[in-house]
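[step 3/7] inverse_fold.run input=structure_tokens len=635
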């Protein structure tokens, strides 16, 4: 019996039980039957909980890129591996077959080697969503260098912090990037960043926009001529199962960004397994995840998960609104996309557009649609279900984190009955638990608590680069012996999980624990509301009270604000109860968002408490200018 693909609900429960009772057998069998190894492991796993040290497939030897590309060549050499859709729909798209990808990755691997990159070296990749980004990541992994992708929207200071933190000596970037109707110069940003990164020896440049750039003699090189000359064969480096594959920075609630370290074998096994099951992947599928490779979602579900399965993955350079708000639907129609995976923030913004944009397209190729990154509110869930999935395609609301490496909680399409706003059930191997304030495991259903995982899983991050103490402190200290996700969750009567937001988004009002996500859900149901964020602020009597920051749809703009406030509170009252009514409502032009589309509630919390001087690290913010406008705005 194979454990790699779950066929029905009964089998899900069977596999789940097996994965808990005999995790060595469960993961061992998946790893053995679905990947190629230079040498198999001695032990499936070994842990030291005290030290928060975890190893999977101990002493196994492999190369993940051999698994992503080489082993597919005999059967799938001419199959498209990557379909590249440029920002400008007038520009010709590119189809990169598995054979092409092999040649391009090998050439790049040889160039990196020639430039002195060695196994274990850290390589910073700061590129737009173009094939060179995927190829650079894979070339690093092929030679055993550790890639650290930085989203190409980060500022110079954010880059230099990350480059210095993990000691990158090499940077791969481009002259610039195209996003919507903008051309953004990237090289000058890198130049500025590197002024404070004395250890960087080489900068390799992709020509994307043709912008004029400064080339620093001895440091900067154009990639194209080097690639031209390079050999298109390369023998993949033998890697240990626990050799680091990549570092990816994620922001903490305070302090410097955390360089999460993912290692090779466990990450490979679980991203491939989760991709196969969560998206019900089949050989002829065209899979499209709209994330950027600068985020974990792009790493796991644009690059590694799909390629490990020999899939065709779409890589989109642009934005959902360019040239028109129908771009996503154009692309689905153009390539006959079968799985579409996006974020609630994108859905909410596309929902405010005229229905005709989505309804005028043939989306009949779609089979599964997914959501990731934030709780998906009920209204957005239904819109997605009705207009994109046409009530035909199951929505997979996938919960996971940079730290978890792959999806941990999600419905399985056509298997797990979905429920709006619920990520539903943990995947096999994932022992999700809810903990109460007294640090006891909650056994009952219909209760909320802190979401933890009580047994290690293969794709978990192994440490924070250079700071194992912080790793232990952040993830394993609140609930000893368990991984604390930082998220709050509710478990319903059948055991489905609903993520209620970061645990610090829980507000205790007059002794009642209120997750902000369900309140935002209720608010967003009001037809005049576009988006909302609710935070708690200190209140003399209630301990905390609720403050809502709300953006309006066009139709809401002309409405009387006082009436709107009353109506919004009525919605909350009837959906949740009068206890959850907002004490303050401020209508704002936009909400502060991170570059990956998450609302930065931390800032709103400070503002609501009158703390407007110091906001900590806001380098991940895409629209810092909104802070002042919110501070100066009237209630
Ligand atoms: C994959 C990713 C992780 C945090 C996570 C949680 C939130 C992600 C979610 C979700 C509700 C979902 N989150 N998926 N909340 N429902 N389906 O986004 O990684 O950028 O590290 O963020 O995102 O709060 O803890 P990352």
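[step 3/7] decode complete -> sequence:
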């Amino acid at each position: 019996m194979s454990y790699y693909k779950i066929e029905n609900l009964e089998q899900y429960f069977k596999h789940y039980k097996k994965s808990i009772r005999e995790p060595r057998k469960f993961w061992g069998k998946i790893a053995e039957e679905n990947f190629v190894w230079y040498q198999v492991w001695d032990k499936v796993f070994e842990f030291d909980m005290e030290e928060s040290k975890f190893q999977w497939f101990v002493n196994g030897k492999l190369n993940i890129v051999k698994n992503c590309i080489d082993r597919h060549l005999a059967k799938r050499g001419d199959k498209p591996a990557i379909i590249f859709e440029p920002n400008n729909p007038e520009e010709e798209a590119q189809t990169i077959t598995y054979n092409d990808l092999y040649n391009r990755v090998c050439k790049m691997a040889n160039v990196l080697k020639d430039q002195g990159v060695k196994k274990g070296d850290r390589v910073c990749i700061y590129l737009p969503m173009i094939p060179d980004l995927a190829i650079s990541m894979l070339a690093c992994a092929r030679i055993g260098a550790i890639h650290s992708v930085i989203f190409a929207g980060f500022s110079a200071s954010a880059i230099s912090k990350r480059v210095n933190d993990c000691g990158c000596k090499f940077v791969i970037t481009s002259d610039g990037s195209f996003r919507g109707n903008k051309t953004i110069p990237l090289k000058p940003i890198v130049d500025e960043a590197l002024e404070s990164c004395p250890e960087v020896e080489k900068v390799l440049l992709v020509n994307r926009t043709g912008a004029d750039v400064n080339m620093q003699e001895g440091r900067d090189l154009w990639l194209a001529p080097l690639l031209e000359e390079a050999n298109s064969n390369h023998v993949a480096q033998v890697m240990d199962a626990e050799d680091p594959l990549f570092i990816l920075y994620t922001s903490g609630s305070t302090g410097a960004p955390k360089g999460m370290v993912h290692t090779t074998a466990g990450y490979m096994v679980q991203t491939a397994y989760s991709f196969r099951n969560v998206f019900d992947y089949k050989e002829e599928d065209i899979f499209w995840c709209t994330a950027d490779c600068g985020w974990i979602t792009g790493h796991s579900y644009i690059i590694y998960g799909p390629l490990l399965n020999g899939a065709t993955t779409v890589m989109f350079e642009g934005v959902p609104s360019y040239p028109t708000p129908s771009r996503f639907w154009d692309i689905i129609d153009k390539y006959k996309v079968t799985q579409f995976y996006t974020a609630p923030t994108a859905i909410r913004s596309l929902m405010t557009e005229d229905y005709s944009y989505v309804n005028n397209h043939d989306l009949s190729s779609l089979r599964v649609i997914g959501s990731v990154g934030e709780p998906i509110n009920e209204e957005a869930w239904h819109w997605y279900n009705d207009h994109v999935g046409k009530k035909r395609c199951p929505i997979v609301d996938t919960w996971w984190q940079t730290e978890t490496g792959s999806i941990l909680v999600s419905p399985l399409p056509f298997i797990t009955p979905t429920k709006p706003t619920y990520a539903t059930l943990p995947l096999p191997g994932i022992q999700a638990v809810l903990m109460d304030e007294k640090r006891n495991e909650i056994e009952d259903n219909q209760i909320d608590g802190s979401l933890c995982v009580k047994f290690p899983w293969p794709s978990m991050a192994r440490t924070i680069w250079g700071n194992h103490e912080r790793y232990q402190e952040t993830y394993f200290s609140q609930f000893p012996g368990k991984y604390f996700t930082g998220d709050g969750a509710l478990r319903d009567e059948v055991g489905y999980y609903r993520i209620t937001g970061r645990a610090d988004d829980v507000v205790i009002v007059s002794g009642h624990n209120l997750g902000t996500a369900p309140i935002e859900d209720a608010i967003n149901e009001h037809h005049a509301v576009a988006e909302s964020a609710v935070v708690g602020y200190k209140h003399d009597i209630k301990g905390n009270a609720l403050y809502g920051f709300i953006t309006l749809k066009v139709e809401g703009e002309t409405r009387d604000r006082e009436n709107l406030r009353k109506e919004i509170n009525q919605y909350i009252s009837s959906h949740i109860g009068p206890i959850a009514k907002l004490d303050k409502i401020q209508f704002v032009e936009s909400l502060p968002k991170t570059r990956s589309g998450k609302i930065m509630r931390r800032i709103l919390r400070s503002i609501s408490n009158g703390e407007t001087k110091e906001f900590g690290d806001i380098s991940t913010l895409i629209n810092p200018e909104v802070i002042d406008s919110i501070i100066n705005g009237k209630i």
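[step 4/7] annotate
The chain has a mean pLDDT of 94.
The longest strand covers residues 529-539.
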